[in-house]
Amino acid sequence: MTRPFRFAVQASTATTAAQWRDTAQRVEDLGFATLFLSDHYLGAGAAQQRGGWPPQYLAPIAAMATAAAVTTTLRIGCRVFCTDYHVPGVLIKEAATLDVLSDGRLEFGIGCGWSESEYRAMGVPFAPPPERVSKLEEVVALFKAHCTGEPLDVDGTYVTARDYAGLPVPVQRPHPPIIVGGSRKRVLSLAGREADIASISTVPFAAVNNAGRTPQEEAITRLQYIQDAAGDRFSDIDIESSPFFVRIIDDVDGVLDRIARRLRVDVDGLADHPNVLVGDADAVADELLKRREIFGANYISVQQSDFESFAPVAERLTGL
């Protein structure tokens, strides 16, 4: 079964209340399904530059609540909350509250963190990957337990919640959709077992990665990790992808050449990279149909800078 297309916008550039309200309303008006923020906190400086992620002015929880308040159908989410930046029980209560206050429009994205420079800048210990993934597993389990409304009795290695029931109970049952994503087998297998939306992280831009796979082969491998772990429930999982370089434009060669220079990679093969979408609206729509067959991606997130020009693609493909 082929999952229908949905489209989201990842927003990070609003610096005022008016800008943020206008962004949320415009994203909804153009027919996008979801507005995402990210869980990053650093302003401009050396730590932010080392992390390689553009500054996000607004913190996600308050911004998600505001976006929900000024829209009626737009889903809201964070792509994704970092387990180490939040007390698990507090984050989960915040998430459940967002689902209630939005009348059931939350998508709960959760991950194990990756930006060591951001951890260090905020004084958060950066544990080895196996420990961070184990904590993620426990947080996902706690979220599901909280959403039952039953008394909690969790005494894990990283997560504790006991002698109270999870409140509020979310509107969406049995729980708001859970987003889990990453690049490695263990995290993507967790997504296959437990998530409703599996996000495949950006694949390398090198012609061949350290495992000897091309970017296309790497994306297929990651999809297979999800499918193997999901088993019979695979057809119920949305596969989310966020092509970082999206340009709706006729000058394909010129754009690809600029991307290649920026990344210091060969331009050959860049047009087919899973995280590059360049062309006019019709060509990009056709490419997404082809990539859904190959890589499984039906839930596409674009950056805030690109959503206006991308809107015709979303309008053509949404629900197909």
Q: Explain this structure to me?
A:
The chain is α/β, with parallel strands linked by helices and 320 residues long. It contains eleven helices and 13 strands. Strand 9, helix 8 (215-230) and strand 10 (238-241) form a beta-alpha-beta unit. Helix 4 packs across helix 6 (129-148), helix 7 (185-194) packs across helix 8 (215-230) and helix 10 packs across helix 11 (307-317). The radius of gyration is 19 Å and the shape is globular. The mean pLDDT is 95.
How would you concisely characterize the structure shown here?
This protein is α/β, with parallel strands linked by helices and 320 residues long.
List the helices and strands and how they pair.
Elements: E1 6-10, H1 17-29, E2 34-37, H2 46-51, H3 60-69, E3 75-78, E4 81-82, H4 88-101, E5 106-111, H5 116-122, H6 129-148, E6 151-155, E7 160-165, E8 178-182, H7 185-194, E9 197-200, H8 215-230, E10 238-241, E11 245-248, H9 252-263, E12 276-279, H10 281-295, E13 299-303, H11 307-317
Parallel strand pairs: 1-2, 1-13, 2-3, 3-5, 4-5, 5-8, 8-9, 9-10, 10-13, 11-12
Antiparallel strand pairs: 6-7
Helix pairs in contact: 1-3, 3-4, 4-6, 7-8, 10-11
Question: Structural class, from secondary structure content?
Answer: alpha/beta
N-to-C terminal Cα separation, in Å?
A: 12 Å
Indicate the mean pLDDT.
95
β-strand percent reads 15-25%
Quaternary state reads: single chain
Largest sheet: 8 strands, parallel, barrel
Overall, the morphology is globular
Strand order of the largest sheet: 1-2-3-5-8-9-10-13
What is the CA-atom radius of gyration, in angstroms?
19 Å
- Tally of DSSP helical segments: 11
Taking pLDDT < 50 over at least 5 consecutive residues as the criterion, the unreliable ranges are: none
- Per DSSP E runs of 2 or more residues, the count of β-strands stands at 13
Helical proportion, percent range: 40-55%
The ordered H/E elements are: EHEHHEEHEHHEEEHEHEEHEHEH
